[in-house]
Amino acid sequence: MANRVDNGDKRNSHSSFHDDIYGQLITRETPELLSSSVLDLDTALEKIPDVEKTAWATALEKCPELCGDPFKLMFLRFAHFHCDRAAERIVAYWTKRLELFSPSKAFLPMILGPNGAMKDDDKTLNIGFLCLVPKSDDAGHPILFADPSKFPANRDHPSIVRAFWYHVHAALESEDGQKKGLVVVIYAENSSFSQFDTRLLQVNVQSIKNCLPVRMSAFHICHPPTYIRIVIPFIKILMGEKLRKRIKIHTGKQKKVIEKLEGKYGIPQQNLPTEIGGGVILNQEEWLQRRQEIGL
């Protein structure tokens, strides 16, 4: 995509600060900032050549209700209210969404059930390799919990990537998640080297880096298996300089890991899944059922 001068940076006229735990930049929002930024974002989107934004144009035509101010605000917050950056990411998001979900589902709401974009992914979602923890950390970061040991031998890669997108969207229902970023807790102790999936990792990392309106505050890898020494250099290369700095590896006994997550990173033990010694019992099937019942 062609380089453009960003005429929509609102941060210079509004104060920003860094959060205490992970250093994410957070803009102090005002009603004036929000309303003017959405208008500037619309202008930035109009400036992008039509040939580059065909998926976005189709979304505006087929599902305008999915393209309104709340959707745009997620991208503005991601881009720290750099409107041109937000516009380019919106275009990239819809281009990738169309690729992942196909024309038959890309423009449906990101919900469960027969009327949603996830209608063909029930089996994958129920595997439970990725869960949204119902409690956040002390600073309000939503927590995604990943257990790679649950990856089946025969994997539907496109479906797993769509499930990843769904969970990120679910986490971004939190305003704190949009403003401060997400935390991923990865429990890798029971996983095997055969479950390390380069292809999945690459696609999901590219989604984080290029498409989704999400800031990842940290990847807490807890109780890593021995093969982590082999794959971590590759993971860091794939993630790039910015994301690799977000990797935190926690070894040792369960009590030591819990104390570090709680004391240094503000994740209370009672807000962590029982799998790593916390107090939250995760039930993916019940979570999915509740969300479908309320239209999510």
Overview of this protein structure:
With 296 residues, the protein is α/β, with parallel strands linked by helices. The protein has helices at 31-47, 54-62, 69-78, 83-105, 122-125, 157-171, 175-180, 198-210, 228-244, 254-263, 284-293; strands at 16-18, 25-27, 130-132, 143-146, 182-187, 216-222, 247-250. The strands form two sheets. It has a five-stranded mixed beta sheet with strand order 3-4-5-6-7. Helix 9 links the parallel strand 6 (216-222) and strand 7. Helix 3 crosses helix 4. The longest helix is centred in the N-terminal third of the chain and has 23 residues, at 83-105. It is globular.
Helix and strand topology:
Layout: E1 16-18, E2 25-27, H1 31-47, H2 54-62, H3 69-78, H4 83-105, H5 122-125, E3 130-132, E4 143-146, H6 157-171, H7 175-180, E5 182-187, H8 198-210, E6 216-222, H9 228-244, E7 247-250, H10 254-263, H11 284-293
Parallel strand pairs: 4-5, 5-6, 6-7
Antiparallel strand pairs: 1-2, 3-4
